[in-house]
Amino acid sequence: GNSVTQMEGPVTLSEEAFLTINCTYTATGYPSLFWYVQYPGEGLQLLLKATKADDKGSNKGFEATYRKETTSFHLEKGSVQVSDSAVYFCALKNSGGGADGLTFGKGTHLIIQP
Amino acid sequence: GAVVSQHPSRVICKSGTSVKIECRSLDFQATTMFWYRQFPKQSLMLMATSNEGSKATYEQGVEKDKFLINHASLTLSTLTVTSAHPEDSSFYICSAQGTEHGYTFGSGTRLTVV
Fold first, then answer.
1. With contact defined as beta carbons under 8 Å apart, do A46 and A109 qualify?
2. pLDDT band for position B51 (cuts 50, 70, 90)
3. How far is CA B111 from CA A53, A81, A88, B81, B90, in A?
4. Cα dihedral angle (B67, B88, B40, A2), rounded to 10 degrees?
5. Distance (Å, whole) CA A62 – CA A78
6. A104: chain B residues, CB-CB within 8 Å
7. Residue B26, burial from CB neighbour count under 10 angstroms (0-12, 13-18, 19+)
8. Which A residues, 24 through 83, put their C-beta within 8 Å of a C-beta on chain B?
9. What is d(CA A66, CA A56) in angstroms, rounded to the nearest whole number?
10. What is the pLDDT of residues B55-90, one digit of tens each?
11. How far is the C-alpha of A105 from the C-alpha of A110, rounded, in Å?
12. How far apart are CA A41 and CA A84, in angstroms?
């Protein structure tokens, strides 16, 4: 079956530090990959996505590249801000279209200190 | 943008009672609704998928008689936890999928059964 593994948190960084949150996956076929962010008290919001190998998703300074050879989709940001503090979820969706639910990782709590 | 409203955000109920959680798509029609459950420090686990006007499809291990899902319209789905027990205490999140909006998540419901 499908699975997503992401680094355990919490991850604590200083403002303007470089961020990497690792994510690897197991899936049949060629899934679509997502990063979602959940700010305190809010629902999950799509941060970025990639639908095929070597695609790079980007949004708000965050980037992630779909690496089929390493089955990874690591999230990076060059300079984090306090407002980036949130829980980040890596997720995948099976290929083939249709209405499939997502398979999520456990989430990584990111804390950015001023 | 697409918004999904989920209520209540928190509920405490006595063991043996039933609790209903509502999920509404406010500005789009949701062809499919997904219900997830999240245990502390665990990933979101898909419980069931429902399409408007038809019976929900439950994931393996999820009791359909305990977690009743109704998707009576294109903008409303409900999850009823029947005869709740302390082990049902968890965080429940809905997600709505429209034809154009991808996955939009509600803000979740924290259920505590005492």
1. no
2. confident
3. 39, 32, 22, 10, 5
4. -40
5. 8
6. 36, 43-45
7. exposed
8. 36, 41-46
9. 6
10. 899 999 999 999 999 988 889 999 999 999 999 999
11. 15
12. 14
What backbone phi and psi angles, to 5 degrees, belong to A82? -55, -35
CA distances from A9 to A106, A108, B3, B41, B42 (A): 10, 5, 28, 9, 12
Residues B1 and B79: their CA atoms lie apart, in Å, by 24
**Which residues, in sequence order, are bridge partners of residue A6?**
A23
Q: A45 vs B32: CB contact, 8 Å cut-off?
A: no
Tokens of A93: 């969706």
